[in-house]
Each structure stands twice: as C-alpha cells, then as structure tokens.
C-alpha cells in the first residue's frame, strides 16, 4: 500500500525516482507522482493510473534537478485521481505520505478556519499545510517545521518532504509505515522498501518508530520526533532484488501470512473505538430499527469469512443473518428487498459472481455494503458504501491476509450493529473491543510459536486425503483450512462441522487419513474432544489446534499446534494461522508453485 522513493545526489533525480517506483509496484497503487527540485524551483508531475502514464508525462518534459521524491498511491482517503495523487504541494513544500492521519478531520477544520484552501480529498495535504504553516511562522529549518507539524498529527505514517526554500535535502519521518535509507557514494536514497535502490547501494539504514531523517547527498542526520539524536547502524543487504521484493521471504504467501498482525491492526485503526466501546464503519450508518436481516454474499475464502461473520453479527446484534454463495444467490430468485442489508465480501472487488449478486440485491431494493481490499474496484463502486480492508496488496493466489482482514471488518460491523440494536451492552462491548485490540499481538505470538513447519510437512505430504473438523466459529475455519490445503498442495481435503462426523464422514477415517481438529478452549470444547476420540478409535491421525496450556489434549493426539487463549468470537483469527502455515509447508514439501497454484487466478472475473 503506497510506495515512497527519494533521491539526493549529483545525478538527474527523475529517472532514478521512476525506476525506484517501478520496483515498488508490487505494493499495489492506483496513481503516481513525483516532485523534483532544481535549486529554488520545484516541478510536480502526477497522474492517475499506472506508472507508464507518469513515464509518458516526464518523458515529454523531464523535470530537471537532482533532489526529489516520488510516490505510488493506493487510495484510502479520497478516490484515485490526479488531484489526490501525491506529492501534495503547498507553498514551498511538497509531501509524499504513506499511512493514515487519524485526526485529519479536526486538523482540516482548523486549517480551513485559518483561511487555508485545500485542493484534494486526502489526509496527506494536511501535512503539507502544517509544514508550510510552520515555515511561515518562522521555523528555523525544514526539519524544525516537520517536527512542529508532526507534533499535531495522530496516526501511522511515513512521509518525505522537499522544499523550494531548502534545496539539497529531503526530510523524512516514520511512525509505523516502513522507510529505509540507502547510503551511496556521494548520493543518498530513500524508499519504502529496499528493492527501490538495491541496484545503487546495499548499505541500508532501516528507520524505526518516531525517527526523523535529514537526508543530503553526504548521508543522513537522524533524530527522534522531539529532536534527540538517534544512532542506527547501517546494514549490508545480501539478498538479490527478487527476494527483497518479498521482504526476504521465499514466497509471497509466507510473507503475507506473517503480515497478518499488521493487516489486522491497519484494518482496525481509527475504526475500533476503544474509549467508546464501539466501531466506526467509515461513516456508513445503519438504521438498526429498520433492519430486517443481514445477508452476506461472497465466494470461496471470502465466503468462509462470511460464515464467521454470521456468528459475530448474530452474536452481537441478534439480527438474523444469512450467508450465501454469490454464485447461487444470483440465479435463485432470492427473497431480498428493502430492510435487508447485504454485505458483499470480496478481496479483489472484481469477482464476477459477487458483482452480479450485488447488482441483483440493489435492483431488489436492498442496501449494500462492500467489504473489499481494492479501493475503487467494481464491487465497492456498485455498492452504497464500502469498508475497505487494509491488508495491502495480496500477491499469493491463495488468500491469507485478506481473509483475516475480512474477519476484522466483519467484527467491526458486528460491534457497530450490536451497539445500535442495544444487544451488545456497554460492558460486553468494552470486553470485546479490548480483546479485539489485542488480537494482532496474539497473532504474532501464534506465528512465532508455530515457527517453520517444514519437519511437520514431511510427515503428512504424502497423505491422499485430509479431514478438518471444527465447531461454532471454528467450523468455517475447518472449511478454510481444507480449501487452503487443496488449493496449493493438491491434496484432497474436506472440512466438516465436527458434530456432522458421525453422520457420514467418519466412514472415511482410517490410518491413512490425517484429521485436523480445531479444539481451542471455549464453548463446545468437551464435545470436540468426544469427536476427537471417535477419530482416534478408528486409527485416524489426529492433529489438534488447541489452547496453550491444554495438557489434556496432547495425550489424545499425534500433534498439537498451540494458539493463545481467546474468546470464541475471536478465535478464528488465531486458529486459521496454523492451517495456513501447514498448507504452505506441505505444498512446499511437494515441490508445488506455492504463489501461483495450477488452474487458479487471483481475480475471478468470469462466471
Ligand atoms: C482462495 C481464494 C478464493 C477467493 C474467491 C473470491 O484462496 O482466494 O477462494 O476468495 O475467488 O475472490 P474475492 O474475494 O476476490 O471475491
């Protein structure tokens, strides 16, 4: 999500900035731009769409100068357009930014009241105004003005600033979003990720939270937000460029599995209102009194997120909730109309079946909210409102971080609705929101505890069939675990509600069938143990996903994969992690193409 590049040195900046942005394309974007200063003059070039558009513009009239910043924008505040593209120039300064300024509404109101005019819908332009304001008020340097501005800003961001009045330097700051600096000989590079400058230097300083960098061709001066000097040693990068784009991971899928705590935190940021025990849906209001029913529509992995969403929404809001496969809904003459809230869940926003289902529901008078990871894609554009997941671009075809980010968005909807129907009491909401805020941390703990599952995979890679069993909120996770394994390992796998075992699937169990049982502590735990015993009695190989500290279960299974304790409503965020890692490790052990499994596409734009 968004890429930042910068250059200060003796060479022409424009081609270096464009080449750097090319290397950051994998992050996903919908507009691009750059600002280059030549002594006291600055030229800004921006365009909507792909980098080739920016290349055409600068090829006609290359902005001269050897200091500049560039940006690829993945729209969050404000649609993708030229006016919303970065850099944003105000007075003598231009700013590129990655992340979210959470108090942008209050800051914008204050700046407008002071007579400042805005030309975009972005939160970034606020930073440009604040820095310009500080310079006009007499800030002694660009870095001092940036500090004054950042003291007013709340949120998670990385930004880079150039100024006509301060030639020969870039000031950059990092709070949460990544930034690194490449130290060349007589030239210095800045980027969101190392590949942007790897062909020029391998000496890199990774900025940490709250670092402010004054960047010149001679190197950098690092301080904290309050001006205290900071020392960060440079590291030498030994990866090749292709691996660096995967952040050092061998596959995008593994990188994306490990990005999930960050993806959830980003999806909750500014929406999970801890002090109010509430959730904000980016302004999408639901009239709970007039609400008859919620209908969740999706395909594949997104459908599994919907099944968890049903538990969450019915549990918190006590509103009837149905989940439908979009491909079935659209052809079924569905009973749907005014009073129904349809939530269309789609990672890509382009899935043909889900898009058609949205159009069908709208035509029949339902209100439609899209939960989507791609801003301004077809499904959000066809809906009344959108709640974007902030997972960042997902490149591995088998969805991982988009799935858990969808769960986060659905949990926000459940809290929002429950508070408005009044069925989620303030006390219960306080407990749930506090637990929810701790989930990214528990995801980190889970991933660290599981580690590398390569040895585990060797024991199971030759199985012909797998079963996955779960109850309650973990039933959809059993379905998702089976789907993940099928998609990338090509092993046949079935997911079942654990209580259904004895009604048929138990006939499949023998000593050649690994059975993954989701058995975290919580409602239904004892029942799952009985199902587990039934499998064991038939020589099935039981792999349990259980709560840390549960020693009883270890004696009943071949393997136990542990997760931290969590309330049932939030367990899916954790129980899915061992299943994703297990599928990845087994597919790898079989020598499969993990990121691009056979026959599958990332966006399914056909029926
Ligand atoms: C599986 C997977 C698919 C998608 C499905 C819907 O890993 O990614 O099952 O979930 O094709 O796609 P979206 O979410 O883009 O509508």
So what's the overall shape?
A: globular
Number of helices: 19
Helices and strands: which structural class? alpha/beta
Q: Please, what is the average pLDDT?
A: 92
Question: What is the gist of this entry?
Answer:
With 607 residues, the chain is of the alpha/beta class. It has 19 helices and 26 strands.
Write structural notes for this entry.
- It is a single chain.
- With 607 residues, the protein is α/β, with parallel strands linked by helices.
- The strands form five sheets. It has an eight-stranded antiparallel sheet with strand order 3-2-4-1-10-9-11-14, covered by helices on one side. A six-stranded antiparallel sheet has the order 5-6-7-8-12-13. A five-stranded parallel sheet has the order 18-17-19-20-21, sandwiched between helices.
- Helix 9 (300-317) runs parallel beside helix 13, helix 9 (300-317) packs antiparallel against helix 17 and helix 16 (454-460) crosses helix 19.
- The chain is globular, with a radius of gyration of 25 Å.
- The two termini are 29 Å apart.
- The model has no long low-confidence stretch (mean pLDDT 92).
- The structure holds fructose -6-phosphate.
- Fructose -6-phosphate (F6R) binds next to helix 9.
List keywords for this structure.
eight-stranded antiparallel β-sheet; 19 helices; about 600 residues; six-stranded antiparallel β-sheet; alpha/beta; binds fructose -6-phosphate
């Amino acid at each position: 999500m968004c890429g930042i590049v910068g250059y200060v040195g003796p060479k022409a900046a424009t081609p270096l900035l464009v080449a750097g942005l090319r290397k950051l394309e994998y992050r996903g974007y919908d507009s691009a731009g750059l600002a280059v200063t030549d002594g006291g003059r600055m030229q800004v070039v921006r365009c909507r769409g792909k980098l080739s558009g920016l290349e055409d513009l600068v090829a006609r009239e290359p902005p001269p100068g050897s200091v500049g910043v560039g940006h690829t924008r993945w729209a969050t505040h404000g649609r993708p357009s030229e006016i919303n593209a970065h850099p944003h120039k105000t007075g003598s300064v231009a700013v590129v930014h990655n992340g979210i300024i959470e108090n942008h509404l209050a800051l914008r109101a204050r700046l407008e009241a002071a007579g400042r005019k805005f030309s975009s819908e972005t939160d970034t332009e606020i930073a440009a105004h604040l820095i310009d304001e500080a310079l006009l008020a007499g800030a002694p340097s660009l870095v001092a003005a940036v500090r004054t501005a950042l003291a007013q800003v709340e949120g998670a961001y990385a930004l880079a600033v150039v100024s006509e009045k301060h030639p020969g330097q870039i000031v950059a700051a990092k709070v949460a979003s990544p930034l690194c600096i490449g130290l060349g000989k007589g030239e210095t590079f800045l980027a969101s990720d190392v590949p942007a400058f790897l062909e020029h230097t391998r000496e890199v300083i990774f900025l940490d939270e709250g670092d402010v960098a004054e960047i010149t061709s001679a190197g950098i001066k690092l301080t904290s937000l309050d001006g205290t000097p900071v020392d960060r040693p440079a590291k030498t990068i030994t990866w090749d460029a292709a691996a660096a784009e995967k952040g050092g991971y061998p596959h995008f899928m593994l990188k994306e599995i490990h990005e999930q705590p960050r993806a959830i935190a980003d999806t909750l940021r500014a929406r999970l209102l801890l002090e109010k025990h509430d959730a904000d849906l980016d302004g999408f209001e639901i009239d709970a009194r007039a609400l008859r029913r919620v209908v969740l529509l999706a395909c594949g992995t997104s459908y599994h997120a919907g099944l968890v969403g049903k538990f969450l929404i019915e549990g918190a809001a006590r509103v009837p909730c149905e989940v439908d496969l979009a491909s079935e809904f659209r052809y079924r003459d569905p009973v749907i109309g005014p009073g129904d809230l349809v939530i269309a869940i789609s990672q890509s926003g382009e899935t043909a079946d889900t898009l058609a289902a949205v159009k069908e529901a709208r035509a029949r008078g339902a209100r439609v909210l899209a939960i989507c990871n791609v801003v301004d894609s077809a499904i959000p554009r066809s809906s009344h409102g959108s709640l974007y997941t902030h997972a960042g671009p997902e490149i591995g075809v088998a969805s991982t971080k988009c799935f858990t980010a969808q769960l986060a968005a659905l949990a926000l909807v459940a809290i929002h609705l429950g508070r408005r129907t009044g069925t989620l009491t303030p006390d219960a909401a306080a407990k749930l929101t506090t637990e929810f805020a701790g989930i990214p941390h528990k995801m980190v703990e889970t991933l660290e505890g599981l580690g590398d599952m390569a040895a585990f995979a060797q024991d199971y890679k030759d199985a012909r069939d797998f079963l996955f069993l779960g109850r309650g909120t973990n039933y959809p996770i059993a379905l998702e675990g089976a789907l993940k394994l099928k998609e990338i390992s090509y092993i046949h796998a079935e997911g079942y509600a654990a209580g259904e075992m004895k009604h048929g699937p138990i006939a499949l169990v023998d000593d050649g069938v690994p059975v993954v049982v989701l058995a975290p502590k919580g409602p239904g735990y004892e029942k799952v143990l009985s199902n587990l015993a039934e499998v064991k009695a038939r020589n099935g190989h039981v792999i349990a996903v259980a709560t840390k500290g549960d020693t009883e279960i270890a004696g009943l299974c071949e393997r136990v994969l542990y997760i931290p304790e969590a309330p049932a409503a939030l367990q899916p965020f954790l129980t899915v992690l061992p299943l994703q890692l297990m599928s990845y490790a087994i597919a790898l052990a079989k020598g499969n193409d993990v990121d691009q499994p056979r026959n599958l596409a990332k966006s399914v734009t056909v029926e």
